[in-house]
Amino acid sequence: MNRISIIRFLQLAAILFFIIFEASCTPRTIDYDQVSPEEKLIIRFPHVTGENTPKGLAAKRFKELVEAKSGGKVEVQVFPNSSLYSDYEEIDQLKKGHIQIIAPQTAKFSNIIPEAQLFDLPYLFQNNKEVWELADGPVGKELGHLFEKKGYKLLAIWDNGFKQITNSKKPIKKPADFFGLNFRIVSSQVIANQFELVGADSSVLAFNELYQALEQGKFQGEENTVSNINNKKLYTLQKYMTKSDHGYLGYFIVTDKKFWDSIPRDTRKMLEDTLTEVTDWERTTAVQMEQDQYAQLQKQPELTIHELTSEEKKSWKASFHDAYNAYISSINNNVIKDYVKKKEQRVP
Ligand code: SIN
């Protein structure tokens, strides 16, 4: 072997050594995924409450059941706590196709479907059973048609619970106690009317901005469920809570109709069956959580709670009554109007 051949041989050996060394050091890329990306249906499902809330737990349960039933062919990505979008942004993003399922508070759809504000009427429901009867009956069906007309599909209605009043200034027992206070509300004319009728101011703010706004004193009060007051620690900023149960807070589980219709029939059926199963579970869970978390709120030393007596409730109902007339004259739908008129008769 001459000198040049020896050099060539050494160069080749060095290259070979380098290749073998590299191969043994670089971890092999293993494709654990049994389903190719083209086969997989991804459903992005953002929401604004914490994970340990009726909505948070139900979204997680939906994800787990769907992924197990589909053998990984459908992946549900849940984003809690407004980590992807705020409550108003998510409605826009659904139409743009960036997300596939949303679960906003019913009131947040009132710009698109004004009839949806029936859920906000003060003291419309006496208990959860009345809400479920509405959701599963002709009014629920009618709401479904209204959603379809606007290009959405209403998949289910989930509960959070009944709303309570919190504020940082004073105990609110009678309607006159609201006078002059400023409340954060969600976008519903019915809710704005409710506060106006008792002489309070109100303005709309997204849920993810609520804690900071209360902390900065931009609002003195707000209305929310036991679960949200507890989970977002609003009781650390709001010294007074009135257990008024004056309104209902629930969620429209909504998708884009075109997207939903594009899903293969058997997969769509599996998703719809799973939603029915999760909705039953969510209803029981929400009732249980409301009881448990109310017990927790009662133990908070910084919070003073007043539970309205039935006499006090009567005078609240009387003060809010005109919200019914305003709602009834603002909508055209007879199925919904008749339902509200019937219920209105028992509100003094
Ligand atoms: C929610 O429960 O999704 C939000 C409620 C709120 O905006 O007050």
- The shape, in one word, is globular
Bound molecules: succinic acid
Write down the secondary-structure element order.
HEHEHEHHEEHEHEHEHHEHHH
**Number of helical runs?**
13
Number of folding domains?
1
Instruction: Tell me the CATH topology.
Output: D-Maltodextrin-Binding Protein, domain 2
Q: What would you call the structural class?
A: alpha/beta
| Low-pLDDT sequence parts | 17-33
Radius of gyration: 27 Å
Mean pLDDT: 92
The fraction of residues assigned to DSSP E strands is 15-25%
Amount of helix: 40-55%
Main beta-sheet annotation: 7 strands, mixed
The level 1 CATH classification is Alpha Beta
Within CATH, the superfamily carries the name Bacterial extracellular solute-binding protein, family 7
CATH architecture field? 3-Layer(aba) Sandwich
**What is the number of strand segments?**
9
Distance between the termini: 111 Å
